[in-house]
Design brief:
Layout: H1 7-15, H2 29-36, E1 46-47, E2 57-58, H3 60-66, E3 69-70, E4 81-90, H4 94-105, E5 110-113, E6 130-131, H5 140-150, H6 157-177, E7 206-207, H7 213-227, E8 231-234, E9 239-244, E10 250-257, E11 262-273, H8 297-305, E12 309-310, E13 315-322, H9 335-340, E14 343-345, H10 359-371, E15 376-378, E16 381-387, H11 399-402, H12 404-413, E17 422-431, E18 434-436, E19 448-450, E20 455-456, H13 467-493, H14 504-516, E21 523-524, H15 540-543
Parallel strand pairs: 3-21, 4-5, 4-11, 5-8, 11-19, 18-20
Antiparallel strand pairs: 1-2, 6-7, 9-10, 10-11, 12-18, 13-17, 14-16, 15-16, 16-17
Helix pairs in contact: 2-10, 4-7, 4-13, 5-6, 6-13
Length: about 550
């Protein structure tokens, strides 16, 4: 439609459609995805030409970065500050914090370097909750089955089984750290945890703290990391390149200290990449719900070093991103709203999809409605209605008490959710693919482990709500434990600091670029969105 319809008309129509409408153009889930999901667009995939995953499909924008030149090309690092540690963790979100804590408490000397500040990550923006099969009616097997089905049976079964089986231990660990969760009866002593329903799940198994679970999680992780004596924290020190030994194994990383404008070369016995995903690349031109730092840095560096990737043409577009006002476009409206009863309505006031179908199905159905002319346009922004009135009826708790982050967002939009809907449109949310890892987070490159959104294989080609927060902790802890064990074994062989590596792999990479006829003028990692190239100051020895 070319203009927004009256909300009252939509409300009247909704009353006559208790279930989603059936149309002649309704498709099966598979056909719907094939025709409308952004991953299946004609320009959504190309083939990688060089590297260990050459010949695999990848999004073109991401392929440009993966097949780019080094950001530090031409820099002499001889005058840079030199440091060493047992375990170097790169990334200050939930996965990096969990890995660093576990490694330190396993006896390793740990250095954690964050591009922004500790906790500035997608973790704090995860609102809906974390999955864990704890209820008497639930089981890790059911959790596994739901996630495998939701990911189109493309997940690595071993990794997914570990995710589901690690969940109870992860929740116990979080509670021991001091994290709060919503209780079924908050007034009773020793109240039981409250479980919510998530899309694509056969059982209610979402645990949450209101609708800012990730923020609460990162609060306790950040406090614990900062108080852990075995962790040296470096804020505002993005990784610009990995280091390698002559045998191709990872030897640490080159950091760039933004405050003092200097390079820091860190030699490490084991390195853990936990740098997150690529949402700020705005793939297919979509808005994004991602944090400022989500620019695929770790993927680029791991691939240049020789790590194998998988499913780099599979991304999740969350159904309910803000479409209006334009200044908030892409901002996330948690699936918790639909879990609590919010409805999706098209421009005719009809429900057109089961709101708790898997996210990729809901997204594709929304894009179909807009393509068919049943969307709503407001000030040039196209979207659909998210009706929150079922959450705001007489006798119900206020929206502010149920979902305070959503009420705050509605206030910023200038909308009273008891009287009018929010305009929503899919937003780029999650990177399904990434670095291939084994059960302990080990990549195909010795000395390099990965955890969190940078990894691939855990969720398949679509992720269910609540499994991301579980993923970063389950595999962050596994990677931290494994890195500490390997570092201890290396330290037992030699009491000397870890050997300093070099960037010979960069020169090998540049030869591959030249042989393939690829443009070597594009540097990566990107580090920050919107920058053609970050200006790095040369070390004093290089300026002399």
């Amino acid at each position: 439609m070319n203009s927004a319809i009256e909300y009252q008309q939509a409300s009247q129509n909704r009353a006559s459609h208790a279930t989603p409408s059936r149309r002649a153009d309704d498709l099966s889930a598979a056909a719907l995805l094939a025709q409308y999901h952004p991953d299946h667009a004609a320009d959504a995939s190309t083939l990688l030409h060089i590297g260990p995953s050459r010949g695999q499909p990848c999004h073109p924008r991401l392929a440009e970065l993966l097949q780019s030149n080094a950001l530090i090309d031409g820099f002499d690092l001889a005058g840079a500050e030199q440091r060493s540690t047992d375990v170097l963790v790169l990334g200050g979100g939930g996965a990096g914090a969990a890995a660093a804590l576990t490694a330190a408490r396993s006896g390793a000397a740990v250095m954690l370097a964050s591009k922004l500040r500790l906790g500035d990550s997608n973790t704090v923006m995860a609102e809906g909750g974390i999955q864990a099969a704890l209820a008497a009616s639930d089981s890790p097997q059911q959790h596994f089955d739901d996630a495998m089905r939701g990911g189109h049976h493309a997940a690595d079964p071993q990794l997914l089984a570990q995710l589901a089986s690690d969940a109870p231990g992860v929740i116990r660990w979080l509670i021991e750290l001091g994290m709060h969760f919503d209780l079924a009866d908050p007034l009773s002593d020793g109240g039981k945890l409250r479980y919510k329903q998530a899309g694509g799940c056969s059982q209610p198994r979402i645990l949450c703290y209101r609708d800012y679970t990730g923020l609460e999680m990162m609060r306790v992780l950040r406090e614990t990391v900062e108080l852990e004596p075995g962790i040296q924290l470096l804020n505002r020190c993005p990784v610009v390149e990995l280091l390698s030994h002559q045998d191709g194994s990872c030897a640490g990383a080159v950091l760039y200290d933004l405050e003092y404008q200097r390079f820091i070369v860190v030699s490490a016995r084991q390195t853990i990449l936990a740098t997150g995903g690529c949402g700020q690349l705005h793939l297919q031109g979509f808005p994004t719900s991602n944090h400022y730092g989500a620019t695929a840095d770790g993927l680029v560096l791991a691939y240049r070093l020789g790590a194998q990737l998988r499913d780099m043409d599979a991304f999740q577009y969350h159904p309910t991103g803000v479409a209006w006002p334009p200044r908030l476009r892409g901002g996330l409206i948690s699936e918790a709203a639909r879990s609590a009863g919010a409805l999706l309505l098209n421009g005719l006031g009809e429900r057109f999809v089961d709101e708790l179908a898997p996210r990729d199905v809901v997204t594709a159905a929304m894009l179909r409605e807009c393509a068919a002319g049943r969307g709503i346009e407001r000030d040039g922004q196209l979207g659909l209605f998210l009706d929150l009135r079922p959450l705001c009826g007489p006798g119900l708790p206020t929206l502010a008490s149920q979902l305070p982050a959503l009420q705050h967002l509605a206030d910023k939009c200038g909308i009273d959710p008891t009287r009018e809907p929010l305009l929503v449109y899919p937003t780029l949310h999650y990177q399904n693919g990434g670095v291939v890892i084994d059960s302990q987070g080990q990549s195909s490159v010795p000395g390099l482990l990965c955890a969190g959104e940078i990894t691939g294989g855990i969720h398949g080609r679509n992720r269910l709500m609540g499994n991301a927060l579980l993923d970063i902790l389950a595999f962050g802890r596994r990677a931290g434990r494994q890195a500490a064990r390997l570092a201890q074994a290396a330290r037992n062989k030699s009491s000397l600091p870890p050997l300093r590596g070099g960037i010979e792999h960069v020169y090998r990479w540049q030869r591959q670029l030249a042989l393939a006829g690829l443009d070597a003028s594009q540097p990566a990692p990107l580090l920050y969105p919107g920058l053609a190239r970050l200006t790095l100051h040369r070390p004093a020895s290089a300026r002399a």
